């Protein structure tokens, strides 16, 4: 039997100091959330309206913060080419009850970093000993929200969502109301850390 899955995709395009965001989340193959610019939409009614309004505000706040940082660094160290950052994260729940979680980051179409969920560490995937990847790795390892909090989201919240949806558990649980959009927030913070590293290192200040 195929595993149940919760997958989030987030992409950020940075050009001339401007950031463009888009992405989506899917729960067992069904579109659950859509991110377009600063707007995140709940496609499946997974959270009540009041709670969802707060999640939307949180996401918008983090995306605005990211955009402002990009503008700040681009003024100090202009970059004359477009950069594309993408995050793919989620979890799978198998019929035997085991689960697998993941977080992968690409920069300009090349594997950049990945998150090793069992011990909450970031791993460089960029070819060679690149200063940008090394700096981003160090920055992301500094903060609980991009280490322990991310690990908890992937191992506990994400898997709990699937367990609540799973017929294998024998019942539907209230955990289906868990804040799925938390993954978007965590993903944005990860990108925030990487953007700092990318712009600093571009200027040779790692």
Description:
Keywords: Glycoprotein, Membrane, Transmembrane, Transmembrane helix. Residues 51-162 form the MHC class I-like antigen recognition-like domain. It comes from Chordeiles acutipennis (Lesser nighthawk). With 206 residues, this protein is α+β, with helices and mostly antiparallel strands. It has a single domain (4-166), classed as 2-Layer Sandwich (Murine Class I Major Histocompatibility Complex, H2-DB, Chain A, domain 1), CATH 3.30.500. It is 37% helix and 31% strand. It has four helices and eight strands, in the order ββββαββββααα. It has helices at residues 49-76, 131-140, 148-165, 182-202; strands spanning 4-15, 18-27, 30-36, 39-42, 83-93, 99-107, 110-116, 121-124. An eight-stranded antiparallel beta sheet has the order 4-3-2-1-5-6-7-8. The longest helix is centred in the N-terminal third of the chain and has 28 residues, at 49-76. The radius of gyration is 17 Å and the shape is globular. Residues 168-181 have low confidence and may be disordered.
